[in-house]
Amino acid sequence: MVRGWDSTAGSGADSATYYPQGGFVHAKQDRDDVWLVLDLRQRAILDRYIRLAQKNTLPAIPTLQEVIAASQRDETISVTIGSRQLKPDELPAFWKEFARPTSRTDGGGTTPKGSDGLWIAFGLEEGRTVHLFYDTKGHRLIDDLGIEALTVPDDWLSSVIGTPVSVTSPLLAPLAIPQQEPRGGRLWWFVMVGAGIFFLGAAFVAHKKLA
Prior knowledge:
Strand order of the largest sheet: 6-5-8-9-10-11-7
Radius of gyration: 19 Å
Strand content: 15-25%
Number of strands: 11
Oligomer: single chain
Helix content: 25-40%
Order of helices and strands: EEEEHHEEHEEEEEHH
């Protein structure tokens, strides 16, 4: 919900104030006040970035993998590799493997093809599911839009599954990703990456005021 925003009045100011307890954002557009009310899922995404930044657990421009890896320390996140959901006693080994150092590479700009690897689904506490594609041929971890990609070791996840990971493994049948756009859109995660960085400084000020 937006109050006061005029689509003909140009872009908003380069800073805003986020009120975490109410989910409100106060910004300026052409010197006029603009109020935005985020829905619960949007708030959960933004609050996650703020919480992790306050703990100094994220770099200035984090990858999706870094956000998920940091979030699981305080949140219960389910993990499904292909069609196999990991059991609770398998998760510690997975998170250790998932946190191994990676480096950025080209994602290609398109949704990865299922024949080239396996989808990994992360079930977040707010009800969202985030997907990363494990390219077993190119040894890359790619977001579902092909925007962000990371290189991973050749033996990645082998210690978790107990066998080399491939699309033909009977333990990891490919997982079909629904094509229907979820409520709020999958782009929200990436939009809120920028939003999290955008509102971070103002959020700290608001947090102190509301503490």
